[in-house]
Design a protein that fits this description.
227 residues, alpha+beta, Molybdopterin biosynthesis moea protein, domain 2, four-stranded mixed β-sheet, three-stranded antiparallel β-sheet, 11 helices, 41% helix
């Protein structure tokens, strides 16, 4: 049975705004049908509320934070392009310290919930391999080599907000039928770097309920540190 946002809110005993945020952030899997979100009962049942982890950061603040974390070798950072203010730099230092002292997936997801707008689509399986090669999208989550999963039957990626409509049109992406799992997940943001910071990939993996995805997210989180 599919639940609407009001029905989901009633099921979880939260207000509609909170229910919608849980779906849009990916903590509860949902599908957009006719411009409205619907959630399968089985997906709603998997949700486990955690302790409050703080207010979600704005999209800009989320990318500022994610751009600070890389592997052992320093990489190109978004920081110089985003040009953080002194106040933003101060808040960044506090958040970086908190993540380094006690890396926690629920808190990470809470902070980064607004990093991008999430869209789910169905695509012809025969187009998946070519879609991966489209230069307008940047592979993440289970599609990123870093995950070690490389699901060949789906694509998970980021796209610049201005490119989203053209990508959807060019690849004939459509909303999934009710009850059918999407095989394309696109997250649209204002500015998407050509090389995604590892923390982005970890956040996307952590939003999935699977044990392998959760473990991959934790491994990435352990291996990165701030620069």
């Amino acid at each position: 049975m599919a639940l609407s946002i009001p029905e989901l809110a009633k099921r979880l005993n939260v207000n509609e705004s909170r229910a919608r945020q849980l779906v849009q952030s990916g903590r509860i899997r949902g599908q957009r049908v006719g411009g409205r979100w619907i959630v399968e009962e089985a997906d709603a049942a998997q949700y486990r509320p955690g302790k409050p982890a703080g207010r979600p950061l704005s999209e800009r603040s989320a990318w500022l934070l994610m751009s600070c974390f890389w592997d052992d070798s320093p990489r190109h950072s978004l920081l110089e392009h985003l040009d953080p203010s002194p106040v933003e730099k101060h808040r960044l230092k506090e958040r970086i310290s908190r993540l380094q002292d006690s890396p926690d997936l629920p808190e990470l997801l809470a902070w980064l919930a607004n990093r991008a707008e999430k869209f789910e689509f169905s695509s012809s399986p025969s187009d998946i391999a070519e879609l991966r090669e489209d230069k307008r999208i940047h592979l993440s989550g289970v599609s990123h080599p870093r995950s070690g999963l490389l699901a060949n039957s789906e694509v998970e990626a980021y796209v610049q907000r201005d490119d989203l409509r053209d990508v959807v049109k060019d690849w004939f992406l459509v909303e999934p039928y009710p009850g059918k799992r999407p095989n394309v997940i696109l997250r649209a943001a204002e500015r998407v770097p050509s090389e995604l910071p590892p923390l982005v990939v970890a956040a996307d993996l952590a939003e999935r309920p699977g044990v392998r995805e959760q473990q991959a997210a934790r491994e990435i989180l352990k291996s990165i540190h701030a620069h």
